[in-house]
Amino acid sequence: MTRFALHEPPLLSRDPADPLARIDRTDAAALDAAWPAARVLKVGGRGKVRTDGAHVLLDPAVDVAAKRPDAAVLVGSDAGRQVWAVADPGLGSAPVPGEFDVDVSLGDLRTHGTVFGAAENRWLVTALALLNWHRGAGFCARDGAATAPGNAGWVRVCGTCGREEYPRTDPAIICLVHDDADKVLLARQPSWPQRRFSVLAGFVEAGESLEACVAREIGEEVGVPVRDVRYLGSQPWPFPRSIMLGFSAMADPEAPLRFHDGEIAEARWFTRGEVRDALALGDWAADADAPLLLPGSISIARGMIESWVDPR
């Protein structure tokens, strides 16, 4: 039986430290007192941030606001100083000539996550997840009254009934289906260009175990029964606020492929050699006339595929 494990933690899960755990997010006075020395990460549309090409750029908090804004969210620390994030929609558009210094540009997790440091990726992942949640949590689910942020952006409280709501994370499974030999099942969504393939994924439903979700999603998307479902690892995926839970599973490559729910436009079994050749080309952004292009390293999918190709 071919079993494999991830060679290394997913890219967005490589910062084990949790400096937020050492900060009392309920102590508003202490947070206010720390604001003048803090740094701020400005996050624009589609997760754009300012970068020097290798690192995210932080602003002195006092240059952003004299006092801590209610809409700021605490995302970490840097050299003993708190790091906060604020939404800056103006960063969502392309920079105009002269807007930035010559060494400053825009980047995001998808384009720069492979070069940012682990702590920087953690700040950005946390900022995206929190800011995306805040945008949709402005009113109480119980009585419809307006809510206000608290605890450094990690809770919203209803102004009428006092109900507290905490940041939402949507669990999703992502599964590499293989035949226990030399083939892997990869698929393409309708919105993806031709030749771009990845492993299968889908959201966990209410009352469902993760293993049951793997079987259901793969059955719905490609009509193939699976067995020997095994957990591999996880990573945050703040697009808009998910966590990807990686699994492997086995299936019969002779089983007919049926696309039941319209989420898959094409699925094929590829050999280990074909996948290894595709990995050598780079990722989806590669300008190559090849039959198969694979996700980049920012996604756990890449690590799953690499680990299957060369099991250790």
Please specify the SSE layout and strand pairing.
Layout: H1 28-34, E1 39-43, E2 49-51, E3 59-60, H2 61-64, E4 73-78, E5 81-87, E6 105-107, H3 109-112, H4 118-135, E7 147-150, E8 155-158, E9 164-165, E10 170-178, E11 183-188, E12 200-203, H5 210-222, E13 227-237, E14 242-250, E15 266-271, H6 272-281, H7 300-309
Parallel strand pairs: 1-5, 10-14
Antiparallel strand pairs: 1-3, 2-6, 4-5, 7-8, 8-9, 10-11, 10-12, 11-15, 13-14
Helix pairs in contact: 6-7
Approximately how much helix is present in the residues? 10-25%
The biggest beta sheet reads: 6 strands, mixed
> What is the name of the CATH architecture of the largest domain?
Alpha-Beta Complex
Assembly state of the chains shown: single chain
What is the CA-atom radius of gyration, in angstroms? 22 Å
The CATH topology of the largest domain is Nucleoside Triphosphate Pyrophosphohydrolase
Overall mean confidence score, pLDDT: 93
Strand content: 25-35%
- Amino- and carboxy-terminal Cα gap: 13 Å
* Unreliable parts: none
**CATH top level assignment of the largest domain:** Alpha Beta
Number of strands: 15
The best one-word shape is globular
Based on helices, strands and strand pairing, what is the structural class?
alpha+beta
CATH superfamily of the largest domain: Nucleoside Triphosphate Pyrophosphohydrolase
Q: H/E order of the elements?
A: HEEEHEEEHHEEEEEEHEEEHH
Number of H- or I-type helical stretches: 7
Q: Any idea how many domains? A: 3
